[in-house]
Amino acid sequence: MSEDFDKIIDEKGLSEKYRLKEGEFETSYERFPKKCGLCGGDVKFANNKAVHGNNDWKGYVYLCTKCGAYVGTYRPNSRVAIGVLSNKVMRNLRMDCHKLFDNMDFDGRTLDRRYSWIQRTLNIPRHQCRFGYFELDTLVNVREFLIECYEANGVKVPKLIED
Ligand SMILES: [Zn+2]
Prior knowledge:
By secondary structure, this protein is mainly α. It contains 6 helices and 3 strands.
């Protein structure tokens, strides 16, 4: 199954179209971010009440003081960011990518193998192949690629947020 899948992708030239060139993949993924990757604003470490209001979900975020983009940290009470600072559009794109990616059972791969396939096909460094690490441009690119994989296989694209 997955061989056929790759063949379709190759024949349609999809992987070539979306493959990132050497040095093109950029991520400002910092474990302890100080500047926002979106607007360059200063980032502060804050209680997550700053973005989620008063609820029981304890934890901390890195929050851009200029545009309001944020990222959570590893729990419990870690200061290490789990990815890049994101705004609403990026969070939506990321949810779309996850939905597309998780439902690609027509390619015959396990999730693990699918991650390494994405990494190789799009030329993303292996240790940085996590949707949470992708900046806006990469998210748009990967989302488009995944949608075209569905279409190339004649599989209906699931309902997405950022249409
Ligand atoms: Zn910002």
